[in-house]
């Protein structure tokens, strides 16, 4: 992690971008080694998997997800966050 005058903090390390879709990571994560995961192959993710059953996909320093929980049922949220 390093400090950035404009944003306050930026991060670095191995990043898992869950439910990446076609969206880039926010600017404060641009120094990360991004591994993209999505259930939709059309987005050309590194890993095609369901957020609820990703399997053994390795270890990451950071997990980033935005606008994904709205796509799971309420009873699946706890599983998704684990």
Task: Describe, in short, the structure shown.
With 82 residues, this protein is mainly beta.
What does this structure look like?
The structure is a single chain. The strands form 2 sheets. This protein has a 4-stranded parallel beta sheet with strand order 5-4-3-6, with no helix packed on it. The protein has a two-stranded antiparallel ribbon with strand order 1-2. Strand 1 and strand 2 form a beta hairpin. The protein is globular. The model has no long low-confidence stretch (mean pLDDT 90). The two termini are 24 Å apart. Helices cover 6% and strands 28% of the residues. It is mostly beta strands and 82 residues long.
Key terms for this structure?
82 residues, four-stranded parallel sheet, mainly beta
- The chain-level structural class is mainly beta
How far the N terminus sits from the C terminus, by CA atoms, comes to 24 Å
Topology pattern, helix = H, strand = E: EEEEEEH
What is the number of beta strands?
6
Radius of gyration: 13 Å
- Quaternary structure of the protein: single chain
Helix content: under 10%
Number of helices: 1
Mean pLDDT: 90
Count of discrete structural domains: 1
| Main beta sheet strand tally, sense and closure | 4 strands, parallel
Stretches with pLDDT under 50, minimum 5 residues = none
Strand arrangement across the biggest beta sheet: 5-4-3-6
Strand content: 25-35%
| Mass-distribution shape | globular
What is the element layout, followed by pairings?
Layout (H helix, E strand, L loop, with lengths): L1 E3 L3 E3 L3 E5 L14 E6 L8 E2 L13 E4 L11 H5 L1
Parallel strand pairs: 3-4, 3-6, 4-5
Antiparallel strand pairs: 1-2
